[in-house]
Specification:
Blueprint lengths: L9 E7 L3 H11 L8 E8 L3 H11 L10 E3 L3 H5 L5 E4 L6 H10 L3 E5 L6 H14 L3 E4 L6 H12 L6 E9 L22 H17 L11 E11 L2 E12 L5 E9 L7 E7 L2 E9 L2 E9 L12 E6 L9 H13 L10 H18 L9
Parallel strand pairs: 1-2, 1-4, 2-3, 4-5, 5-6, 7-10
Antiparallel strand pairs: 7-11, 8-9, 9-10, 11-12, 12-13, 13-14
Helix pairs in contact: 4-5, 5-9
């Protein structure tokens, strides 16, 4: 890997998988960004066949033909063995994450693995232990954590105290999926592949709740969740919808509560979350919970019927290059960490991944949802 002294960090990626998430991640890294703090090269791609892999490259590289094309392999091992690969991006179905990570780590590669990191905490611990023994960088790709949204929210909530003490948080991720039209072996339907709304999209709602209600503290520093209440709507062995309520102790006494819901049955509203404090509220909006566009700050209480609205409102909008979604922010963070010989990221450390997997394990257990991997 290049990247020392005054030069920009430069990492060479090996991408596993050719689905939507790998497509968007790769597209973001190829997009021109004149002010980018790091350089990214896609050096290799692992697919189930050369035909599928080459078709992926033809499609993704169409808009940036000047970018060097990767070496395409008809398996994942070729990516692990490629000496031109510094870090492996795991964009495969959930059930493959553990083995993909272990194989990449065994080959001495750094790893950025899509969420959910694994199916359960036990699998996650196995990967974390292997990474720490090998001394390589590993991070769960919870890309939304790296959006400038959360720095701006921290400024409003903690530095400016714009809405007073946070008391309640509501968030909903509705991502309509045509489950009736999908084959039984689809990653969105097959329990053996870790299908279900909680692991696929509910992890985002729990992430927001953890950041905001947990005062931006991660891993072992995260405050204790006083109570977790949940309801899973299980159909054909997967949760098509869920609601999770998290109770935290409030600094002012009593408790503060986060209500998190996610579903495959409906598309959610553009305004997907609301943070309520003692002196105002913040409304979050965007394409979806995973791709936030910004937020509105409303200082003061909501007026009673008939009262004049004297509240102060301002808007924060996220800016990013045209044609990108925002995956590059996490990739830049990975590049900086690797160039500085760090094996974990401060925003998304491995202990935070383990904490989140344990939380989702408990929610599934309480709701009666288990996967084959839970029995191994």
């Amino acid at each position: 890997m290049a990247g020392t002294g005054k030069s920009l960090p430069h990492v060479r990626w090996g991408v596993l998988g050719t689905g939507w998430i790998s497509t968007m991640f790769t597209t973001d890294l190829l997009a021109p960004r004149p002010d980018a703090p790091a350089r990214h090269t896609i050096a290799a791609l692992g697919s189930s066949s050369l035909e599928k892999g080459n078709a992926f490259v033809d499609k993704v590289w169409a808009k940036t033909p000047e970018q060097p094309r990767p070496q395409v392999y008809a398996d994942y091992q070729g990516v692990y063995n490629d000496p031109n690969v510094d870090v492996v991006y795991v964009g495969t179905p959930h059930s493959l994450h553990k083995q993909n990570c272990l194989d990449a780590i065994a080959a001495g590669k750094h790893v950025l693995c899509e969420k959910p990191f694994t199916i359960n905490e036990r699998e996650a611990q196995e990967v974390v232990d292997a990474a720490r023994r090998k001394g390589v960088f590993v991070m769960e790709a919870v890309w939304t954590r790296f959006f400038p949204l959360f720095k701006a929210l921290h400024q409003e909530i903690h530095a400016k105290k714009s809405i007073g003490d946070v008391q309640r948080f509501f968030i909903d991720f509705g991502n309509k999926m045509p489950l009736d039209e999908l084959p039984a072996n689809s990653r969105l339907k097959d329990p053996a592949l870790g299908a279900g709304a909680l692991l696929d999209i509910g992890v985002y709602t729990l992430t927001y709740a953890s950041i905001i209600m947990g005062d931006w503290k991660v891993g072992k520093e995260h405050p204790k969740i006083e109570r977790v209440t949940s309801s899973l709507d299980i159909v054909n062995g997967i949760d098509e919808a869920n609601v999770v309520v998290l109770d935290y102790a409030s600094a002012s006494g009593g408790k503060k509560t986060a209500v998190c819901s996610s579903t495959f049955r409906f598309r959610g509203a553009e305004e997907f979350a609301r943070i309520e404090g003692t002196a105002g509220s913040i409304v979050l909006f965007g394409l979806g919970v995973s791709v936030p566009g910004g937020f509105r700050v409303i200082e003061g209480s909501r007026p009673q019927m008939g009262d004049a609205d004297a509240r102060v409102e301002r808007v924060f909008n996220i800016e990013k290059p045209e044609g990108t979604l925002g995956f590059f922010w996490e990739a830049d963070a990975v590049a900086e960490d690797i160039s500085n010989d760090r094996t974990e990221n401060a925003t998304m450390p491995l202990d935070e991944t383990l904490r989140m997997m344990k939380l989702m394990d408990g929610i599934r257990r309480a709701g009666g949802l288990s996967y084959p991997q839970d029995e191994q």
